[in-house]
Request: fold
Amino acid sequence: MSYIDLLRESAKASGNVVCMGLDPVLSVLPESDAPARERLSTYFAEIFHRMRLEGISPAAFKPNIGYYAVLDNPREEDFSGSLALSDVMDLLDNYFPGVPVILDSKRGDIARSSENYAKEAFDGWKADAVTVSPYMGTDSVLPFAFADKGVYILNRTSNPGAADLQNTITLDAVDEKELYPMYIAVAHRIAHWASEHPGVGAVVGATSMKELGEIATYYADRDIPMLIPGVGSQGGSGSDVMAALKSAGYPAELARINSSSGLTHPWKKGSAPEDWLDRVMNAVHSLFAEVSL
Reply:
């Protein structure tokens, strides 16, 4: 199955376009003397079990590799974080077969290094898609363009500093006669790559609605998947994103609207409250309602 078809099928099956970010922070999990790996695995297993009991599923999951790698201590032969991520990937396979998993690693390097990173994501972690930086260009990006995998290229991101470079006015590398904001020039390049490699998509944040609307309009008839972070803790609104996609004529089933801490630990700071699982599920149900199909 192509990645485009996987997105359409998972959206249809789940009835929503939620991407559930899995970015654990040990300090906000329920207190425990158990090792980090066990704490993370147990925590997500409880959430996934409750979701399955209630018959609900997001349309994608997105673990950010940095939240797991930081728990490793390789010089001491301690790989607790990486092993926890492996446990989480196994849990996803068992609880949510057919739901795409996007490994958020934001790779991108010279060609041979990118080939290695692509093998890390797709062969090592068995991810369905990966996030990639476009800064080094074609030979850096295309090693990730596997036939049946997704490649989400950073287009207009959700972080506060995004405008520093991404809104810079530049000569377009595809249309060399025109000046555009950098995020539009990158969108043109993404569309060029996607025309030859279906499954190439874009990361477009929910915190800059003007830019999101422009990019969604440009992608509307091109079958380019969009990963849209920034909903919840970063201030973006799921309902606003859905309205923008509809206004742009963009096929919502190819979008994945991501919330991470806003779903998995919505209390943000301090140890988890006694009713932590209920609070997680309330947040999940709320976002599902906002971005249902």
Residues 36-53 form the longest helix (18 residues). DSSP finds twelve helices and ten strands in the chain.
